[in-house]
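quick one before i forget lol
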Amino acid sequence: MLSDAVREAIRVRHYSLKTEQAYVHWIKRFVAWSGRRHPRDMGPTDIEAFLTSLATVRNVSAGTQRQALSAIKFLYTQVLGGEWTWLDGIVQAKPSKHVPTVLSVAETAAVMQHLHGSHGLALKLIYSSGLRLAEVQRLRVKDLDLKRLQVFVRDGKGAKDRVTTLAKSLVPELEAQLALRAQWHAVDLATGHADVEMPHALSVKYPKAASSWPWQFVFATKGYVTCHRTGAIRRHHLDDKSIQRTMKEAVRRAGISKPATPHTLRHCFATHLLESGTDLRRIQELLGHSDVATTMIYTHVATVGHSGVRSPLDRICA
């Protein structure tokens, strides 16, 4: 089956589960749009027509259109094999340049007041350390250094590792979270459910590591769930939708009308550091950006410090 071949090719290359789900989705959409024709029987005109239909009929964004094209290119180059030189001639949609939504320091503080429990702590850690949602979900016990106030991000976006800062004010909450996880881990060991999902082939190389304390997720589900890929029944990391719901409720309770999401807290981390005078290159390192040009987006939303410009009206009215 074509979708099974796609999943196998993705897993061999250690792509994330979200990438796997997105690629399989778009490839299925492409085949269904073509009337169930095999991709080998289609060419560049078919792909361009499909992408055009996404924009004109479905009204998808340029980013979504580019993701669909990436999935189709992966299908041809990594699954079907052979020479597909015509793929390079397909024009990609021009990426949109959006200014990120950023909360003020006061607004962020208001949101923090309504964050409680494990989900709330995960969101606080995103703002504390500039983490992506997936990075805080996959955080392991061994990745926290509470004494040196450091968070180690393993195999982040682009398969990169990095070290970022940790707020001292979060240490008591994190200690309590780790104590709770230690209690759960003791129960898991007794019931035979202590193993966790391991990256790549480490579960084969180190078979006992999966049930060891250092490899446990910091933020795990209260109960046991079935792993999508292996079928194993064990604790998994917190679901992204549950964290998003917690953020949405906190924003509502804080009386904020901006469309803030968990990723907004990462934007706030970068912007607030920039406004306080932190060097742009250092912020780039903490965020894990490959190019400082990506980090430069925060100069457009910073209000003081590095890039803030005072409105000339204030000089007149002063």
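fyi The longest helix spans residues 171-191.
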